[in-house]
Prior knowledge:
Two copies of one chain form a homodimer.
Chain A: H1 5-15, H2 17-28, H3 40-57, E1 60-65, E2 74-79, E3 87-93, E4 113-115, E5 118-120, H4 124-145, E6 151-157, H5 167-173, E7 182-185, E8 197-202, E9 204-213, E10 219-220, H6 231-240, H7 263-271, H8 276-281, H9 295-300, E11 304-313, E12 322-323, E13 326-335, H10 341-355, E14 361-371, E15 374-375, H11 381-394, E16 399-403, H12 408-416, E17 421-423, E18 439-441, H13 443-460, H14 464-467
Helix pairs in contact in A: 1-4, 1-13, 2-4, 4-13, 11-13
Amino acid sequence: MNTDPLAEVLAESRAGREVFHTRLKTYLSCQSVSTDPAYAEGMAAARSFLTDLLTGMGFSGIRELDGGVDGHPALYAEWLKADGAPTMLIYGHYDVQPPDPLDRWTTPPFDMQERDGRLYARGISDDKGPTLIALEAMRAYIAVQDRLPLNVKILLEGEEETGSPSLPNILKRNADLLSADAILSADGARWRSDLTAVNVGSRGNGGLEFSLRTADLDLHSGRYGGAVPNALHEMARVIAALHDADNRVTVPGFYDDIVMPDAATEADLHAIPFDGAAWAGAVGAAEQGESGYTTLQRLWDRPTLEVNGMWGGYQGAGSKTVIPNEAHAKITMRLVQGQKPEAIRDAVKAHIAALVPPGIELTFTADRGWTKAYAVPGAHPLLLAAEEALFETFGQKPVRVRIGATLPLSDLVARELGIDTIMFSFSTADEQFHAPNEFLRVSAIDDGIRAWITILDRIGKQSPDQYLPYRQK
Amino acid sequence: MNTDPLAEVLAESRAGREVFHTRLKTYLSCQSVSTDPAYAEGMAAARSFLTDLLTGMGFSGIRELDGGVDGHPALYAEWLKADGAPTMLIYGHYDVQPPDPLDRWTTPPFDMQERDGRLYARGISDDKGPTLIALEAMRAYIAVQDRLPLNVKILLEGEEETGSPSLPNILKRNADLLSADAILSADGARWRSDLTAVNVGSRGNGGLEFSLRTADLDLHSGRYGGAVPNALHEMARVIAALHDADNRVTVPGFYDDIVMPDAATEADLHAIPFDGAAWAGAVGAAEQGESGYTTLQRLWDRPTLEVNGMWGGYQGAGSKTVIPNEAHAKITMRLVQGQKPEAIRDAVKAHIAALVPPGIELTFTADRGWTKAYAVPGAHPLLLAAEEALFETFGQKPVRVRIGATLPLSDLVARELGIDTIMFSFSTADEQFHAPNEFLRVSAIDDGIRAWITILDRIGKQSPDQYLPYRQK
């Protein structure tokens, strides 16, 4: 007889693996594309599937939460019978990206197929597979022990792929209902398939759009050429002046408030096996960035200012001999620890204004985003639980990594609910998210369920008091 | 009874003014945009209109001339019954610039409308109005006298707005057919509405288009930002580096071969009443250009390098956090006396190549134009006839001026046919050529027809022998 309760839960899950695959295939057959109203039926089908599954697992309080305006509701469910144990808000999303271009899929996007140790379907890695892995861990736990070791609130969003427009309102309107000690997210992705890692931070972001105007209209390059300003020359000068020869951003004060990670964290970063030239070469790019930093530092520790679009003048076939009177640019920043979004925004705007010569009209036409960088506190109990679970599962101490991208969820829940987020997804970043032939490694299912069973167990052994110092509301 | 034959021709023309306006409106309704294949039907409609008009006027030998490859044919017609009189090749072009941006037109670009003494339509000043003015002078002459005072060959080009790619071959293949004593051009423009002037020179031109590529695809600005090149940053650096702080072109050798006009010509230039700040201010621009030269020198004596279009990345609504992998630019140069087009082209390409860092792919995708600057000899009989006609029409001696723009024709016919060109257009340079709301002053129609009737008369009183010293073939 197996007397280790965790081993019994694992055995239950393994015994149910074939049923799990069938369930996954059914969930993936729901065509829940949130961006396109033509898929409304698939969105409803995914909610119905999840409602039935959660009900069968013994969850209660199941309901739809909306932001008070048009949009796809989030699904909520709870299991709150673990008196004295911490409460986790477990996050996932049931919407997926559009399957287009359909002709690039080897097998149909909404019919899960296995090939060479990989399962292919739209949404399998982002985020339906990882969500069902988390739910399967809970199902097995309840099946064996008729209980969970912790209190769980589940929030499954329906608008993650469209930028979560309703989520701020959903959090605001249901702050008490969603109150928890921390968020454990089934979304996100493992950085690499060859490294056991836990993500502890992400960069913030913000964006500006601006236009330059040098004359009332496009001018003939013969009749005016050489004697009036050209909006594209001026835009090129402004954009070129935003970085120096060392690829540093020239905005005064841009780097002033940065809090670089401590020496131990930096030592850990440098210890990570990483071939930057190969990483860039895989997408046909050179390894290039701010002088004095490695590629991982550039991605994790250092901020950026990137031009995402720049245009003006004639773009059609052939030639048009105009001196363009208008030029436009969209720029976004990625921000790191210590940088204050509003201060950066103001500094960038002031710098651009200073770069534009007199007589040329500068207009800022948009201002978007402005979320801070996010970092999980190094001693956060949920981070420690995640590290233990990964160690148990993979037999090696996970490396703490960060991502250069922005996780709106982390910033949002920190602001609205005052709690921290740990991403605990078992998809991997190379699994063609948002692209044709999205896949999930079959091995991720075993690993993921085991890690989830373990982390639930570890959290169950913690006290809510351990979380109190980290709760800001 | 009116016994002055010229006065009778003028009266005939004035009597037909309403018919002329209707004819002009019809011609302008032909959407003859040469640069875009979508307008092929409009190009054919313009040719058909001109063929009917010339046939009705009594011209013969009407035919299309092509360069032997794909392209828009030129239209040819002749009236050669003035034995012993000089033969003029009269030039115009029936193609127009694209009407974009359409939303900036007050009234539709292909529907001529009159407002406040101005006629608005795409191509009305460049070059359909001036062409019909020249033809109307001939029509009235023939209607009254049943003859022309000189021999006329008409060449109406269909590719002027795309740099005349077929014209060299058209001239080569039809050198005998097009043989004449000089070219009298209905293209070009009066410099100012307040100055009677004759143009004696123009700048040459040439264009390049190129692309930069920094990666195989657009990259996520979070996952790659700060650690790989951005094609738009690189393009901005290249474009910004093409001019220095004194607005001089940085291409090595760019200015080396320039032959500046002699002291007398420069003294004439400085004597012309010209308020550069007001001139630029009229189009909402600042007066800005190469250090050490006046605005007139910048326009007439000095070469340029202008970016006509520059683009890459996301231009749509909202934000897209990409690192663009491609950037594109269209540039054109205006060349002055002494500059060798091929040498300039090679120097500009080499300079751009030197500005692009290793690891970034540079591709030149187009190479267009490359015509030399042009100047009419000071005692040329056609120049003298033009000055007489302008004196007769406006009652004041015309000032000799130049233009900063390019007539590919002048350089080409000097090379291929060995003859000189006088531009005798009655549009004015401020009439929004190539831009939205292109217009022609209604008064230019009276003035232009009168001047054309007079110059035809004056040439008819000259002998072909006067032209011999200037014919190089």
